[in-house]
Design a protein that fits this description.
homodimer, alpha/beta, Carbamate kinase, VC0802-like, eight-stranded mixed β-sheet, 14 helices, globular, ATP-binding (chains A, B), Asp_kin_monofn (chains A, B), diaminopimelate biosynthesis (chains A, B), aspartate kinase activity (chains A, B), Aspartokinase (chains A, B)
């Protein structure tokens, strides 16, 4: 059995609903369907979730909410009418929204979470109803019924460990196609609590792990994951297959296909993920797997990101000082700074961090602490660094990858400020000046693809 | 004023004593002379220090020490006779050695330290006497008189902070050439305590810092420091000038010109060091300075070392776990493991350590702890790694260095397993298989020189 998740643009309009239904009905293994709230129908459209946030804000701030309310209802109206569903659905949605507003008018966080969640929830109800009209047995299943128990942090839910077993028990043996809203779960106290944004991916991943699906299909609006950000390089190569590790390295820097933590549940169960296009379902898509056969291409993709800085520390005989690195990291941890890499020489170490973490006086305090607590000879911050990551399993075992990459950068006149490649690694990181990141990305892309 | 240190081979025979005296007398600034014990006169010769260790062992173990005693005395006899010094010196040295043996016969550590120190001490007395015979005012100064107060750890002395001022006070205003034995100091309790081996360099460096010398000349038996280990590459380029930082990076791996900690005192006072050849004093030698002008060559030298291993750790979402790196280093510190580098990806980190540190069950224990305390997905040790370091200030600012290095390695068919280059660094580290280290070194040497 497969878990199939449809993103916002896949369920944005009656036409998209029809495509989704066709996809679901085309494969009998597609049993667990996760839907997002209606997304954008065109470039200048607004997402349902944004409309709902606007509605929640209007209510909470005591402003006139009728326009916001109307724009929410309009979207549902369009879907119900377009799919010739019973008009009753519209009035039911309207009544539910009004009840939610009445109940949480003075509890802004719950109001926000409940209204946001309604985007997915109502869409799931409509999808189940629509599939039923096509003659297939299909049911809406609420996250509560499904067993999606989460922590009680509005807007930042985390799945509880016991949820997976509950999900398996409650869903595995049910008949028909089950349509489950993404993006939220229920706390033990019975509250609706939403995941961080992009959370429908999380729901799909959790359900897939809970029912031990053979595959987690993730339908979005692109044919595949690309080897480089298509906004930066025109018509980049499609990736047919990549490993979780490769996905993580790419997702880190400039690839926003998945929410950071979304794949963790399927990763742990080694369930393959397939990214496909709702608008072009016959394209093979991209498979994300726990291990893959070498395909002759050591590099699978190239990612980039900007806005880093490097804290550069020098101390004579540093490498003879047991505990130096640990004490340095302790200072950063103490200041709630997370770091990316720590390239080091004999008497020097650089700590690469995202620059925004050093704002509001933190930089001065950290430099001061490094000076006085570690008695270093010199410490300074280098700003405006970017990183380009060349990613691929098996890269580490291929002679000449570093040469090819370094040559491409040298030929483009780009100075490499840092390099980081570990023994078991699937990526090679090049630190360059921020302003040269896009050039570096392009040069590397053309070298490897 | 200069502090001038002569290594063992520079003071191994009467002929070498004459060379040293000529060097000292050739420059009126050469006022503070540090001498080692007599070194090897030819390839199969034995060093005085080794003879003295043998003597100490014989005494301590109650064996017949007459042969060992005779071989020590023979060396002094040769020097005294060869330089036509008074015969009295020989009998004085003999009496001193006998007294030392009698006093410490039952205290092996003190016996060892006192006998070892006598090699330098007697040589300093003979050198002062010899220079005097040449018509120059010259005095032997004992480390005690000089103010060399050290910690009371036999064989592992460390200079005490107050020593520097004492040295300045006791030596700066004295007349004549002052000859001071290297390798040992006195504890506050009045004991002779030796530095770790190679410690005459340490004495010279401490005296230079104490008297605030304008230069520390270090005379040995090579014309200069070479850009690569001459045992591995034939006739390598000489280095005219390098910075302390470059020296440290080179000294780390395969360059044994200086004892690791020897340069710390002069480093802190920014006193330049000049390495010269007693047998060829007209050669310019190598200057080690705190900063140097770029000379158009970004790479100053290439070093290598073997016998490393890499602890490779993978954990999904590692980079989102604040404190992961710190807790990992804490485990290593706890197990008294010092590490070299920690190249990292998004969800993985490698810790490079010297392999001998993981013996005697430590490896199993550390892997176990990493598993259970850090809940990693995977951890394993990769063995037989070597490192090649390309060293040079300004390298980081030159486009194409990494490309040149990586190309040279690729052309030699060498797979790069790790790369480490930080933002402010003077070195670029390439990890390769142990068995390819020498090939890698040669390939890099020919690329840059």
């Amino acid at each position: 059995m497969k878990v199939v998740k449809f993103g916002g643009s896949s369920v944005a309009s009656p036409e998209q609903f029809q495509k989704v239904a066709n996809i679901v009905l085309a494969d009998r293994k597609r049993k667990f369907i996760i839907v997002s709230a209606p997304g954008k129908r065109h470039d200048v459209d607004r997402k349902m979730t944004d409309l709902l946030i606007q509605l929640a804000d209007s209510v909470a701030e005591g402003r006139d909410d009728s326009a916001a309310f109307a724009s929410v209802m309009e979207r549902y109206q369009e879907i119900v009418t377009g799919l010739s569903l019973e008009k009753l659905f519209v009035s039911e949605i309207q009544r539910n929204l009004q009840e939610t507003i009445a109940r949480y008018r003075h509890d802004r966080k719950r109001l926000m979470d409940s209204l946001k969640a309604s985007g997915e929830d109502n869409n799931a109800r409509l999808m189940a109803a629509y599939i039923t009209t096509l003659g297939q047995e299909a049911y809406y299943v609420s996250p509560k019924e499904a067993g999606m128990v989460v922590t009680n942090e509005p807007g930042n839910a985390r799945i509880l460990p016991e949820a997976f077993e509950r999900i398996g028990t409650s869903l595995k043996n049910r008949e028909g196609i089950l349509v489950i809203p993404g993006f939220f779960g229920y706390s033990k106290e019975g509250h609706i609590v939403t995941f961080p944004r992009g959370g429908s991916d999380i729901t799909g991943s959790i359900i897939a792990a809970g029912v031990e699906a053979e595959e987690y299909e993730n339908f979005t609006d692109v044919d595949s994951i690309y080897s480089v950000n298509p906004k930066l390089v025109r018509n980049p190569a499609e990736i047919k297959e990549l490993t979780y590790r490769e996905m993580r390295e790419l997702a880190y820097a400039g690839f926003s296909v998945f929410h950071d933590e979304a794949l963790q549940p399927v990763f742990h169960k080694k369930i393959p993920v397939c990214v496909k296009n709702t608008n072009h379902p016959e394209a093979p898509g991209t498979s994300i797997v726990s291990a893959r056969e070498p395909n002759g291409y050591p590099v699978v993709g190239i990612a980039s990101d900007k806005g880093f800085c490097s804290i550069n520390i020098t101390k004579y005989l540093m490498n003879r000082e047991l505990g130096f690195g640990r004490r340095l990291l302790e200072i950063l941890e103490d200041e709630h700074i997370s770091y990316e890499h720590t390239p080091s020489g004999i008497d020097n170490i650089s700590v690469i961090v995202r620059a925004h973490q050093l704002e509001n006086g933190k930089e001065e305090r950290i430099l001061q602490r490094i000076c006085t607590e570690l008695l270093v000879d010199e410490v300074h911050v280098e700003r405006n660094l970017g990183m380009v990551m060349v990613v691929g399993e098996g890269m580490a075992k291929t002679v000449g990858i570093a040469a090819k990459a370094a040559n491409a950068l040298a030929e483009a006149g780009i100075n490499i400020k840092m390099i980081n490649q570990g023994s078991s690694e699937v990526s090679m990181m090049f630190g360059v000046d921020d302003y040269q990141v896009n050039e570096a990305l392009t040069a590397l892309y053309h070298a490897f693809f």
